[in-house]
Amino acid sequence: MFDFAQMTAPDPGIKAVIDRIEAELHRDVGRGMAAVFRATEGGLFSAASALADTSSPRIGLITGFYVPGGNPAAAETDGPAAAALIARAFSAAGLTCRVATDTLCADACAVALQAAGAGAVPVDMLAPGAEAQGLIGLWRRAGIDWVVAIERCGPSADGIPRNMRGLDMTAFVAPLDRLLMAGPWRSIAVGDGGNELGMGMVSHQLITDSVLHGDRVACVIQADYLIASGVSHWAAYALMGALGLLRPDWRDAAWATFDPELDLRIVEAMVSDGPAVDGVTQERHVSIDSRTMAEHQVVMAAIRRWLEPASPTRGP
To answer: Where exactly are the structural domains of the chain?
Structure first.
């Protein structure tokens, strides 16, 4: 049986590897996030080690970012694809997992989960403007004790959720920030632009000074742990890599997500059947944030290289 006591003091070598994995996430793709990356260094290790220290966590994933100006208007590929990879890994490790999203993004999330081989994971929907109490109660009854929000738009200082273009998203965004904050669960948030849930952990002034429209878009909602990434999708690779290092009993399930064909299949299915669009180009392309899946998988490969010495099945 795995000895959970060892998690109170992880091997310093493991921490060093996880910090190097985090450095792979901190690639600025043109959003001016370099200062945010510096401010959040260590976030991956802190988040992963806290989650790994929970014997059998029951995990809720919050994702989905609607693109009303898309062709067609649809959920963006970033977010649900990462959540599907994470859900697949947690489910394969024998853990309970659920996904919460807007009604407008529910089909894309369900398609992503199905393509990932995690179609049995429930998708809980909330409509824009609806009350969150029913969903909060559902997650409490389900015993959720960790929530991971990934690429999820959240309210700025004036209470209005905005996209990176500074546009008001109130009509398209369900108040899932209330679910994140409701507890008794602990929370991890992932973002790549400053307007996502969890970015309240970063100084508002820093986002204002660094990110285009930062003063208007900066999300004020905090999380227990924040992982900043050049593209939110990459954080799925990183989190699964880190958890595989910290939890040998989850390793096979977590590292099985380092599969370029699986990664591509999820996004292809979302675009074809979700539907889903690229959040930057706003077109129905098999891409995330205007980058092809081959480009994203360069980051996957870079992270995987840091894991290879720890895996008996992977050569140098």
So the answer is: 35-308
In the numeric block, the tokens 């959920």 are attached to 75
User: 251: alpha, beta or left, given left = phi > 0 and alpha = psi -120 to 50?
Assistant: alpha
Is the CB of residue 167 less than 8 Å from the CB of residue 157?
no
The CATH number, out of the four listed (3.40.50.12780, 3.90.1640.20, 3.10.129.10, 3.40.50.2300), of the domain defined by the range 35-308: 3.90.1640.20
Tokens 């945010």: give the residue: 36
Residue pointed to by tokens 């096979």:
252
Q: How many CB atoms are located within 10 Å of the residue 225 CB?
A: 25
Q: Which helix (H) or strand (E) holds 97?
A: strand 97-102
pLDDT tens digit at each of 316 positions of the chain: 333 334 445 677 999 999 999 999 999 999 999 999 999 999 999 999 999 999 999 999 999 999 999 999 999 999 999 999 999 999 999 999 999 999 999 999 999 999 999 999 999 999 999 999 999 999 999 999 999 999 999 999 999 999 999 999 999 999 999 999 999 999 999 999 999 999 999 999 999 999 999 999 999 999 999 999 999 999 999 999 999 999 999 999 999 999 999 999 999 999 999 999 999 999 999 999 999 999 999 999 999 999 987 665 443 3
Reading the block at residue 289, the tokens are 């944030």
Predicted TM-score (pTM) of this structure:
0.94
Q: What distance in Å separates the CA atoms of residue 39 and residue 118, rounded to the nearest whole number?
A: 34
Residue 290: left if φ>0, alpha if ψ -120 to 50, beta else—which one? Answer: left
Q: Which two tokens stand for residue 13?
A: 């070598």
| CA distance linking residue 161 with residue 139, whole number of Å | 23
Cβ–Cβ under 8 Å, residues 7 and 246:
yes
Residues contacting 243, CB < 8 A, separation 6+: 48, 51, 52, 89, 250, 254
User: What is residue 196's DSSP assignment?
Assistant: B
